[in-house]
Structure formats: structure tokens, C-alpha cells
Amino acid sequence: MSVAHKVLTTNLDRNSAERALFARYVVHLVGDIHQPLHSVALFNKTYPEGDIGGNREKVLLVNGSTSNFHSYWDAGAYMVQNDSWRIVRPMNMQNLTALKDVANSMIKKYGP
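The chain above was modelled as a monomer; its predicted structure follows.
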């Protein structure tokens, strides 16, 4: 039994930093499994050195700005946000507020 499995399947009635850390880790791993850009790279005439998992491929957004394909995909293809802004790193206050709103609505719906 892995440490993560043990921590996540015991003390179910308690919220702890350790449980939160391992839950985040499991979510990250599951996300990576569903994220082909974390495990592949395109090599062709345009990208003889590889596209670095989509980081060299540019996407034109509805608002006229551009993003690399990997960031676009990681952000859920911007499904969570409106067309007038995009998630930037480090996050600005508008992005942070929008993500907190999504998180709070999920907590209301599913509980802490």
C-alpha cells in the first residue's frame, strides 16, 4: 500500500494538511495521465528539436492574444474563463478571483 493511499483512505472524518497534500498529488497524477502534452513531443520539419510538449506551438485566442498550446490545454482550453482574459503565470488578481469563485461553487455543491 502506498503512503498516499494509506493517508487518503484513513481518518476520512478529518481534514489535514497531509491529506490535502496527497489528494492534490493524486489529482495532479490523474491530470497528467489525461494530459498527452506531458508525455509526448512533436518532431517534424517545423520542430526538428521537438515542440517541447506543445510549448512551441502558438494558439490565437478569441481576444486576439496568443498562447502556447500547452498552456492553453492546461488551462482547460480556457473553458473556466471568459474570452476577455486568460490565465497568466504568476496569476493576476482577476484570474485568482475567478478560480476562487469556481472552487467556492464546487465546495458548495460537493462539500469541503
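The chain is about 45% helix and 5% strand.
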